[in-house]
Amino acid sequence: MLNIALPKGRLGEKVYAMFAEAGYECPSLLEPSRKLIFENPEAGVRYFWVKPSDVAIYVERGAADIGVAGKDILLEYRPDVFELLDLNLGKCRMAVAAKSDFYDDGSRTLRVATKFTNIAARYYASKCREIDIIKLNGSIEIAPILGLSDVIVDIVETGKTLVENDLEVKETILPISARLICNKAAFRFKTAEIEKITSYMKAQVETHD
Ligand code: PRP
User: Fold this and answer.
1) What is the Å distance from ligand 1's center to 9 Cα?
2) Which residue among 31, 102, 154, 173 is buried most deeply as judged by most CB within 10 Å?
3) CB 137 near ligand 1, within 6 Å
4) Looking at ligand 1, which residue's alpha carbon is closest to its atom 19?
5) How far apart (Å, rounded) are the C-alpha atoms in residues 13 and 5?
6) What pLDDT, in 10s, does the model give residues 109-146?
7) What DSSP string runs through 11-29?
8) Tens of pLDDT along 162-198?
9) 47 falls in which pLDDT band (50, 70, 90)?
10) Rounded Cα distance, 82 and 167, in Å
């Protein structure tokens, strides 16, 4: 049985469609319910719906053999997992944003509000820019408006949230997309199955490109 952690939400539904297309169907998963675990013994799979930011934890600790996590989470927490494939879904970017009239002249410590403190710290360290990190858990866009921070480091997908809050992208840090990840021990013990599923998923990514 292959245990698969899916990120709850729209991305997870798209990812499940790819697994189903690859032959790992589990029809009960699409029925409306509050259940979180579904299995199809004939196809040899068990799926779990988990919070997107928790997928890597389940996979790293072996509660799931494989799963799908955003590159943002992989870069932020650096879980000890194998990254098997870029699924080319959930595409967005990690960016620095601020009020349009903000200009960083480097004269004082930059106040950076973010959920992604490690990504932000590494980015500014690479630029030798001294910063004061303010860790928030959501609605990051409010911070520069209220003067809590000078800039934010956050995910930008359509850019709508920024526009509607009078902010703009100042720098792009990295492109982000969903990745198929694998537990390291599971890869050793279930190599054939995991390589098979990865190659089926890869074929789909290539046809969708
Ligand atoms: C993310 C991100 C932005 C928004 C960007 O938030 O933090 O707020 O999406 O999307 P857009 O460019 O398409 O407007 P999310 O919905 O993940 O919730 P959060 O506030 O908990 O981070």
Assistant:
1) 14
2) 154
3) no
4) 138
5) 12
6) 999 999 999 999 999 999 999 999 999 999 999 999 99
7) HHHHHHHHHHHTT---GGG
8) 999 999 999 999 999 999 999 999 999 999 999 999 9
9) very high
10) 36
Q: What's the gap in Å between 141 CA and the centre of ligand 1?
A: 9
The residue whose CA has the least distance to atom 5 of ligand 1 is 156
This model's pTM is above 0.85? yes
- Facing residues of 154 across strands? 95
Return the structure tokens found at 135: 């860790």
Over residues 31-43, the pLDDT tens digits come to 888 899 999 999 9
Give the list of residues 6+ apart from residue 87 with CB closer than 8 angstroms, or none.
Answer: 15, 18, 68, 177, 178, 179, 180, 201, 205
DSSP, residue by residue, 126-188: HTT--EEEEE-SS-TTHHHHTTS-SEEEEEESSSHHHHHTTEEEEEEEEEE-EEEEE-HHHHH
* Closest residue by CA, ligand 1 atom 21: 138
Residue 150 pLDDT level (bands cut at 50, 70, 90): very high
Residue nearest to atom 10 of ligand 1 (CA): 157
Instruction: Judge if the beta carbon of residue 157 lies within 6 A of ligand 1.
Output: yes
Residue 122 CA to ligand 1 center (angstroms) comes to 21
Q: How far is the centre of ligand 1, averaged over its atoms, from the C-alpha of 87 (Å)?
A: 20
